[in-house]
Amino acid sequence: MVSLIVRRFFQLILLLIGISFLVFMSMHIAPGDPASIIGGPTASASDLEAIRESLGLNKPVLVQYVDYLSGILQGDLGYSFQTNQSVADAIMTRFPNTLNLAIASMIVAIIIGVTAGIISAVKQNSWFDVSSTTIALAGISIPNFWLGTMLILLFSVTLQWLPVGGLNAPFYTVEGIKQLILPAITLGTGSAAMIARMSRSTMLEVIRADYIRTAKAKGVRQRGVIWIHALRNAMIPVITVIGVNFGALLGGTIITEQVFAINGVGRLMIDAIAARDFPVVQATVLLVAALFVLVNLIVDIIYALIDPRISYD
Predict the structure, then answer these.
(1) Closest of 308, 313, 310, 295 to residue 240, by C-alpha
(2) What span, in angstroms and rounded, lies between the C-alpha atoms of 186 and 256?
(3) Contact 292, 247 (CB under 8 A)
(4) How far apart are CA 280 and CA 270, in angstroms?
(5) Distance from the CA of 235 to the CA of which of 15, 42, 53, 307 falls in 20 to 30 A?
(6) Which cellular component, as a GO term, is one annotated location (predicted)?
(7) How do the pLDDT tens digits run along the chain, 313 residues long?
(8) 167 and 102 within one domain
(9) Rounded distance, CA 112 to CA 237, Å?
């Protein structure tokens, strides 16, 4: 396990270097000039050249990348072209909102998805199974921006039970929980549908296994067979789906943050792309990539804890 973690960290470093290079080059190849955006329509040619020189944009691209990479290795993510704020500070200010939203969405997805999947497998071909399968298909198909808008119209505008948007109260307060409910449901619906379908299919395979029939023959109660014997083995593929979806949620909150006016990393990335703010875009993409790889590493570790037969040697 220790060797696995060490190997994955080395792979993480190489992966982030490759991603940083691709993102850096993509931002410089794409049309648009940050100096023109910063200087505005009234800036003269000399003003634009002075802006490029102050930002280091007049250097060769590879030299700029080497300077950027050396800054990252020293813990310096640079400064925003637009606000002149430290990129690290800008991200750390907004990242808690994105993390809280992703965690809340994943909790919603796990509770709904795993519960619905297990019940559907145990009651195969029942009305509950057919209904949950249909709802899961709808959950995967419905766009987040539409679902979020409908939830706002129903629970915020019509019923006035929950706030329209924002995420400015601490998540452990009543107001913070209220602010998280609608965006968490919006973002977690698609993941819940995928988890439900995977839970159902894996549970159906497990409950037909020989050791489950043996447990039933020995007189073990149905609840014990499902929750003690079957669930642990059925959860291994489900954990993969949960891990992948959680990594995707951390980087896929952009639309939900826009709909609910949440000041998170997703909105920061969108604003930075529109303003051609290279340091902010590069830092946010690297953050999302690093989190995705770390989540997959945690999933591998959980695999070994659930099933000791799994070896990574």
Answers:
(1) 295
(2) 7
(3) yes
(4) 10
(5) 15
(6) plasma membrane
(7) 677 677 777 877 888 788 888 888 887 777 766 777 777 677 777 877 787 787 777 788 888 888 888 888 777 787 887 788 888 888 888 888 888 888 888 898 888 888 888 888 888 778 888 888 788 777 778 888 888 888 899 888 888 888 887 777 777 788 888 888 888 888 888 888 888 888 888 888 887 777 777 777 777 776 767 776 677 777 778 888 888 788 777 776 778 888 888 888 888 888 888 777 878 888 888 888 888 878 877 777 777 676 665 555 5
(8) yes
(9) 17
* 187 within 8 A of 256, measured Cβ to Cβ: yes
Q: Are 129 and 120 in contact (CB under 8 A)?
A: yes
Phi-psi region of 141 (alpha: psi -120 to 50; beta: other; left: phi over 0): alpha
Partners of 79 in beta bridges: 86
Residues 14 and 139 in one domain: no
Q: Residue 290 half-sphere exposure, CB side, CA atoms within 13 Å?
A: 12
CB-based contacts of 170, cutoff 8 Å, min separation 6: 176
Task: Measure the CA–CA gap between 179 and 162, rounded to whole angstroms.
Answer: 7
Domain boundary among 87, 102, 137: 87
Among 77, 69, 76, 78, residue whose Cα is nearest residue 17: 69
Q: Are 202 and 167 in contact (CB under 8 A)?
A: no
Say yes or no: 133 and 20 in one domain. Answer: no
Tokens 């704020």 correspond to what residue?
A: 85
**228 and 288 co-located in one domain:** yes
What's the domain range around 14?
A: 2-87
| Residues 243, 296 contacting (CB under 8 angstroms) | yes
Residue with tokens 């965690």: 103
